[in-house]
Amino acid sequence: MKLSDLDTPAVLIDVDRADANLQRFQTYADAHGLAVRPHIKTHKLPRFAKRQVELGAVGITCQKLGEVEVMADAGLTDIFIPYNIIGKAKLDRLAALHGRIKIAVTADSEFTVRGLAEAFKNSAKPLEVLVECDTGMGRCGVQTPDEAVALAKIIDAADGLTFAGFMTYPKAGAWRKMRPGSNRRNKRQSMRGLIRALFRMAVRPICGARMK
């Protein structure tokens, strides 16, 4: 088939180039001692997700339950959802996935945690829950280290749940764009406060994606 024979619209993938990109990413992570859990939103293809795990990723990240179900059906077994799961229908789907694969989620409110706890109170194995912290994106996440610790303790005390650490997604380029001074200093102080608070906690996080 020639390129001119294709009807439009059509998706064309240079598989060799895509694989080279995946290898370069994993090579960089390995060289810097980083455990990576790539987000599949960049490709949304089980083929590439499997390849990333084959190359050394500790698992994958999906944004919604539908993506997780597709990836689980394709054989991916360690998946993280960095989003609040709310409502009985979605919690039932999450519970079904939890019975098939290793899965973790985030929460940024007591409301979300209470819903998860109710859904998993009789689970044979606890659901791993991370606390999402807002460090500049301004979308989701608790706002202070104290709020993060308070929510972590609620997770730790809930039947059916396990506190699995903290998660953040800084705004792209935010650190570079900040002028030297109070804004950057405040963000750094906030993160340092969160780290100090973690070490003061009476609970021990079980991180799904850990540093090597």
Share of β-strand residues: 5-15%
By secondary-structure content and strand pairing, the structural class works out as: alpha/beta
Catalogue the unreliable spans: 204-212
Q: Compute the CA-based radius of gyration.
A: 19 Å
DSSP helix count?
A: 8
Number of strands: 5
**What's the name of the CATH homologous superfamily of the domain at 82-212?**
Alanine racemase
Amino- and carboxy-terminal Cα gap: 46 Å
Question: What is the CATH C-level name of the domain at 82-212?
Answer: Alpha Beta
What is the succession of H and E elements?
HHEHEHEHEHEHH
Average pLDDT works out at 86
Percentage of residues assigned to helices = 40-55%
* Spatial ordering of strands, largest sheet: 1-2-3-4-5
Strand count, sense and barrel status of the largest sheet are:
5 strands, parallel
CATH topology of the domain at 82-212: TIM Barrel
Shape estimate: globular
CATH architecture group name of the domain at 82-212: Alpha-Beta Barrel
Descriptive notes:
With 212 residues, this protein is of the alpha/beta class. The protein has a domain at 82-212: TIM Barrel (Alpha-Beta Barrel). It is 44% helix and 13% strand. It has eight helices and five strands; from the N terminus they run ααβαβαβαβαβαα. The protein has helices at 15-31, 46-55, 65-73, 88-98, 110-120, 145-157, 174-177, 182-200; strands at 60-61, 78-81, 102-107, 127-133, 161-168. A five-stranded parallel beta sheet has the order 1-2-3-4-5. β1, α3 and β2 form a beta-alpha-beta unit. α1 packs parallel to α2, α3 runs parallel beside α4 (88-98) and α6 (145-157) runs parallel beside α8 (182-200). The longest helix has 19 residues, at 182-200.
